[in-house]
Amino acid sequence: MPFREINSKMVEAQVVPGQRMFSQRGAMLAYRGDVSFTPSLTGGQGGVMGMIGRRVANEQTPLMTVEGSGTVMFGHGGHHIQVINLTGETLYVEADRLLAFDGTLQQGTMFMGSQGGVMGMVRGQVSGQGLFTTTLKGHGSVAVMAHGGVIELPITPNRPVHVDPQAYVAHHGDVRNKLSTALGWRDMVGRGSGEAFQLELSGQGAVYVQASEEKL
């Protein structure tokens, strides 16, 4: 169920019988056809236990189920929208950045410490993204929100990408991430460059970076 980008802040999805999708509640802008919107208590796949896990991890964003036959346009808050097509890999993204995604994708949560150890947890605190993040795995499309435009940077072996934690949006692939520091005496006395922390992503995949250091 791919999304069609109408412009940088609106996407359109084709809804067909027998298939469902999920979107953030209140994100529907307009629709054609016979389409229904119902609150999703479980927030996608994973059932009740998945819902409890996301709530405990503070990765519980109110979602709704979209079903029927027709086309639906989505957008939220005038944010920039980036469509990411998954072909079996896992996407790592904060729950509040999810605008809409295919119902076939498997949703879960991941403890940040499992990627990057202690520095992975520190990264969550420095970036304001918490200790957990949301995962979507499988074949399908995801529409995520960001400030300003988004650029996709490939991550290849032996060529890690360093990103400002506040500008990080999401990543996918076989990627490790950790927080690196460049604290020196100038930072300690307030004369640093303001880039004391960077998020280092290495492996094989891609990272999405927004044109702003502002969270949603």
Protein architecture, described:
The two termini are 26 Å apart. With 216 residues, this protein is mainly β. The chain has three helices and 13 strands; from the N terminus they run ββββαββββαββββαβ. Strands 1, 2, 3, 4, 5, 6, 7, 8, 9, 10, 11, 12 and 13 form a 13-stranded antiparallel beta sheet that branches. The mean pLDDT is 82. It is 12% helix and 54% strand. The radius of gyration is 18 Å and the shape is globular. The chain has helices at residues 47-56, 117-127, 185-188; strands at residues 3-7, 10-15, 21-24, 28-40, 63-74, 80-93, 98-102, 106-111, 132-146, 150-155, 161-163, 168-181, 197-210.
* Class of secondary structure makeup: mainly beta
Q: Please describe the biggest sheet, giving its number of strands, its sense, and whether it closes into a barrel.
A: 13 strands, antiparallel
Give unreliable regions as ranges. Answer: none
Shape: globular
Q: Provide the succession of SSEs.
A: EEEEHEEEEHEEEEHE
Helix content: 10-25%
Radius of gyration: 18 Å
Helical segment tally? 3
Strand content: over 45%
Distance between the termini: 26 Å
Number of separate strands:
13
Average per-residue pLDDT, rounded, comes to 82
Pfam families: AIM24 (PF01987)
Organism: Streptomyces erythrochromogenes
Protein name: AIM24 family protein
